[in-house]
Design a protein that fits this description.
By secondary structure, the protein is an all-alpha fold. It is built from eight helices and no strands. It starts with a helix and ends in a 9-residue tail after the last helix.
Length: 141
């Protein structure tokens, strides 16, 4: 599905990831990640000897490093853990790491805050969210 959506976007066709996730009944974050990975490793640039998870870990590397690192991963038979270690090392060494899209990162922060909240805090927040819709929630309200 990630390939289909990435291809449609290249041609200027298609709905947003949120709209497609609703139609396909898939979590938006999961679909967004699939599209990101499919875009980073288009058909013909992937290697079947490595798992989807290895490709996922390496997908955040910049173009000039991604395919060279993929070749190393194939030669050395990397698993997901080794690929993640390489991606983290690249981030720490060069600070040139392109992280997940901003919306996904922010959504994860909101979900974690929600999960830490008490049921009462969630109820209060939900009331404020309904009032605000998708707008800004006034903290002083």
């Amino acid at each position: 599905m990630g390939d289909l959506i990435a291809d449609a976007r290249c041609k200027g066709i298609g709905a947003t990831t949120t709209e497609m996730a609703g139609v396909l009944d898939i979590a938006r974050v999961k679909l967004s990640n699939s599209v990101r990975i499919a875009t980073a490793f288009p058909p013909g640039k992937r290697d079947d000897r490595l798992s989807f998870e290895v490709h996922a870990q390496l997908s955040c590397l910049p173009d000039e490093t991604r395919f060279e690192t993929l070749a190393t991963a194939v030669a050395e038979g990397w698993g997901e853990r080794k690929a993640k270690a390489a991606a983290v090392a690249y981030r720490q060494e060069r600070a040139g790491f392109v992280d997940e899209d901003r919306e996904t990162t922010l959504a994860v922060h909101i979900m974690r805050a929600w999960n830490r909240g008490t049921p009462e805090a969630r109820e209060y927040f939900n009331e404020l969210r309904q009032i605000a819709g998708l707008g800004i929630i006034d903290e002083d309200a």
